[in-house]
Predict the 3D structure of the following.
Amino acid sequence: MKKIILIKYGELSTKGDNRHIFISILKENIEKALQTEYKIIKNHDRIYIETEQIDETVKALQNVFGIHAIVVCYQVANEEEVIKEAALNIISNMSGDTFKVITKRANKDFPINSQAMNNLIGGHILKNSNLKVDVKKPDIKIKIEIREEYSYLYSKEIKGLGGFPVGVGGRALLLLSGGLDSPIAGYLTMKRGLAIDCLYFESPPHTSLQAKNKVKQLTKKLQKYHPKINLYVVSLTNIQEQIYQTLPLNYHITILRRFMIAIAEKIAQEKNAGALVTGESIGQVASQTLESIAVINEKSTMPIIRPLICYDKSEIIALAKKIDTYEISIEPFEDCCTVFIAKHPVTRPKLNLVKEHEAKLPVEKLITEALSKVAKENISEEKHDLL
């Protein structure tokens, strides 16, 4: 028996004529994730990985979107006696008193149908062990997949991340703030097949180097799911100071968010991204009411994806803990959205009034100046290089 890893596709199986594209990108992403020696074979229904380093490979696969399940299994010849002996050998090394055999005969040329194979394998195990059959709540399940070239036997599946392979849906730009919400928004966006880059807005000296380092650490966490994530940094210092000096305090955050969206859209277009992504959730803060979101949206011509729009805080915290960003996100360093914040920011802004306030500022000049100093951050070092 040869021990290999079998990958189940799950949602990818629904993709019809485009299925081969999804599977090819999944294979590429798996190859990028693996640091071990391996041989990989893909077909319409499964991906198979041969490697001597099973545990390390399984761990890496658990961070790849598009995988429904990871199965460590045994590959054997498509012969009745070989399959029977393999099943007995596997179950003899497992603990439990009852068992059930589940056969899937994908290869219709195999002469014995699924139910007959269940009976044959089950009878062989009963005859050669002390186990009993329990079809409802067995201690052990022996699963057999009979495919074109080989049969595959296993007992357990490891749940994958699901979703679609990163890259099948294009690219988006994530506004990564350093708080709880935006890293999760990035994670969920990748789960739906979009590759992402990250954009962080800083406001030195009002925001600290520690705040930027938080964002670098969060980007590293997201790179676990797709290594090719870039982090771009834009300074909003001049914009924030001019807003503070010129405009009513209660409109600061709404107008600042409009500047951020306008700048982000320009960068997204330059980087061939088709959408922006934010971590907004309805009603969580003043800039996230329906009225505020509508006014902020008006500044963009491209889609703005908000994966957390209907999540509550407890759900967001649970997800942050799941993807290991929680402890980083709660570090108490201010981001630009908390600088000069009003005690009572407007929650139902009117677009015509917002535009009247913006007209007091040299909006296009401020945006152009900010874009002239976009920096690509080396997240593994402290160095800050201008593009």
Summary: Residues 382-387 have pLDDT under 50 and may be disordered. The longest strand covers residues 69-77.
